[in-house]
Each structure stands twice: as C-alpha cells, then as structure tokens.
Write a structure and sequence with these properties.
Length: 161
C-alpha cells in the first residue's frame, strides 16, 4: 500500500545517532499510518509522567497512507508529542511540500528525542539521518535561515555529496 513503508526512523539528538526500526506488520495494519501510528508510538515510547520540556518527550512526525497520492488534500502531515500547555496529548497538522518530503524519505514516522548540545540541522533521507552543525545560522530570522540552509544543501547537491 502506498504510504506504508514499514520503517520508522528514530533520532537521538543527544547522541547524534539514528536507528531504523521495522515495526510488526499488525501495528501498521491496526494503526494505518498518520495519527493512529503516531499516537501508538507516543504511548509506547514516552516514559510515564514525562515532563513535556524533557529531552525524553518524543516528537513524532508522521504522514498517512494517501500522502503524495492524487487524492485532493492528501499533502498533509502531523506532529505529535506531549503538550507543554495541557500536559497531555498534542497534535498539529500542516500541508505544503513538507509532507511530500517526509513521505519521500521512505518512513512512516520520524521520532525525535534527546537534546543536542549545539544547534543542528537534521537531513533526513531513505538511509537515515545526517547531523549538520547549525551554529552559523543560529539567531538568523526565518528568511535568512531558509536562504542559508538552501545555499548549503544546494552546493552539496551540485557537488554530488
């Protein structure tokens, strides 16, 4: 089924490591991607009574099984975590090009936990994740940051890195 890759990317910002997990098929079938899968992962991976601001509070990005399809409105993704406002479940949705990029990475969900000692840029691709130093862009406004990141990764693409 399109949108179900059978792979979850777990990123640990503290150790700057990643792991690709293959969940049991019954989990993917019973949760059917997107909100269902992310809710299951949050429940299974967040420690009981975790502080929302703790590095142990998992942040999950997930797309559904129809992302990148020709179905109208299918370019959506969700972000799930424990809410600092309510202390319980939190979800937020967005569209645009990000869900297509998340889906193109070949993961049903991307889970991020931990805390980096310095600012980092995460580059997600089908083989996992890369951690790039972001100290040089820290403090820039949104437009400057976008230009700097695009310039950095456009040069890498041109060099074939």
């Amino acid at each position: 089924m399109k949108g179900v890759y059978g792979r979850i990317l777990r990123i640990d910002l503290t150790a700057q490591q990643f792991q690709i997990q293959v969940p049991d098929e019954h989990i993917l079938l019973s949760c059917l991607g997107g909100k269902g899968l992310a809710s299951y992962l949050l429940y299974e991976n967040n420690p009981a009574r975790v502080d929302p601001f703790s590095p142990d509070n998992t942040l999950i990005f997930s797309t559904g099984p129809i992302t990148r399809s020709s179905i109208w409105g299918s370019s959506r993704y969700g972000v799930y975590t424990k809410s600092p406002q309510t202390g319980i479940y939190s979800e937020s949705y967005a569209g645009g090009k990000v869900p297509e990029a998340v889906d193109a990475s070949g993961f049903d969900a991307i889970m991020i936990s931990g805390k980096s000692r310095t600012p980092v840029i995460l580059l997600i691709h089908p083989e996992g994740a890369e951690f790039h130093d972001a100290v040089h862009i820290w403090g820039m406004d949104t437009y400057e940051t976008e230009d700097a990141v695009n310039a950095l990764f456009s040069r890498q693409l041109l060099k074939g890195e």
